[in-house]
Model the fold of this input.
Amino acid sequence: MKNDTADNIIVTEGVTKEYSDHGVPVNALRGVDLSIQKGEFTAIVGPSGSGKTTFLNVISGLDNVSGGKVWLNNKLLSSMSGKELSDFRRDNIGFIFQAYNLIPVLTVEENVEYIMLLQGVPRQERHARVEGILDELGLKGFANRLPTKLSGGQQQRVAVARAIVSRPALVLADEPTANLDSKTGIELIDMMRTLNETGGTTFVFSTHDTKIMERARRLVVLKDGQVEKDESHR
Amino acid sequence: MRLYLKLAWRNLFRNKRRTFIAGTAIGIGLASLIYVDALIIGMEENMIHSATASFLGEGQIHREGFRETFEVEKTIVNLDEITAQLEQEAIVSHFTLRTLNFSMISSPANVSAVSMVGIEPATERHLSQIDEALIEGAYFDGDGGHDIVIGSKLAELLEVGLGDRVVLTAAEAYTCDLAQAMFRISGIYHFNISDMDKAMAFVRLDKAREMLNLMGEAHEIAITFTDTKYDRAKDLPFWSSYSTGGNEALGWMELLPELEAAFELSSFSTWLIGLILFAVVALGIVNTLFMSLYERMFEFGVLRAVGTRPWVLARLILFEAASLAVVSSVLGMILGFIVTYIFAQTGIDYTGIEYAGVTFRDLLYPVMELKQYVYYPIWVFVFTTLIGLYPASFAARLKPAKAMRRSF
Done:
């Protein structure tokens, strides 16, 4: 068993994932062994179809593995029920998606405080934390706006705010810059990295943008569902 | 909870056109139900009024067996005691005495079998509408003992008019001897009820008693009550207290069982219409909620991913269904009120049409009742919310990764 280091936040052991695409069997992951330590700023990279999204899905418990094991914060995901997984994600993982990831009928403030509502954080504390994070991410004055009234970059910053406001141990981001222009994308990644450095939150994100990859401290390259390369940058 | 209510309400208006169409469809269903219910209540009241106010009365007292045989001898037992008692009844508004027998009416031109009815013109006014239905002549306005009032079709058959003479022939009580009397046509009525217009002839009670050898006796006491609740109450002590000593007292529901059966059929019809409307509405609701759900599949995936429990997501869909129900109910109540109110003011003309043995004599006015605006919207609300369980359970079973297949 590889989950023997307390510093590891994610450990995967021989993870495989097979699914059927219109009747055609697809091996999305083929025996992935990987450990990610707390506080890392890791990029999962690879071409389209390499298994990046599937990998993020299985390490967050959004999807089941076909084989192998995943430990997240020392918990074996396959041993948890659906409800336990929901609660575990709520309390331990922040998510940032490509786009359309905010609830369009909720204001920026309501979107950001949503997870804290699920966690039962008292109202005053919620408001204080939302105010603080919006301020920190340069979104002061946007609290009462609907997401549709924001630019793509601003929306992704709100998504980052929502992901980290509940102070999760891990933030997973699937191609968070895919819908942004390169300058805004780099700004977003730099902001995530600052949060990683100042708050110690572990970030794992997928990308196929070389400029974004350069910002990661660790690069895990996936190809055909397998880890092809795993290197630390700086 | 507040956030989900807010979320559901806002989600409902994300696609305003769709919500408006779905809400209008449900609203029309509710409005139809409100209108049909009001119409049926109006129809029942109209039919009861047509049946009881024309001639029947709201209740009647007879000698037991008279209604089955119409034997002249079967007169009411202890008539004087009963009439004295009726005069003291607080719930009785009016009553009148009648004799009823089969007789032959003849004119120089023709002959016909009729039901000769002996009436007391003064008290009969309160029980029947013969005076109001007169199209020619007068309603026993003089002292003439030989006055007779007949229907328009009978007058046509006998080829007689006002002032013409006719002869009534009837069998006397007890002796069965034939008695004949000459009458002069003093009035012709038109009820637009075939049986009454061609087969009834009204004479003064005293004259009928004299012909039938029934002095001081009567076959029927017709009654009206101070409130309609009495004549519809089958268990009213009144009926049993007058159904003694060989007499029977019956309300219109027993005198006209076919009318009650027709009302039961109407209630069933309302129920059936409601069921069909709700079934159509149910498909609309499910379709709307599923369209909305499929459109937001990714969003539901995100909500599940960030830790929203399945039942919380299901609750959100239920809230949306409930919000749709609230909007639809308001629309339905407004629409139902407007349509019903218009017809309740103008009335619907079914006069002359016969249904369940009763001919509509007045315009039909739908009756608006509070229950239509309380119970039916509650039905819609509960029903819509229950229907929402199906898409809600679908949402609860969503796998986050599948729902978000466009990304993660």
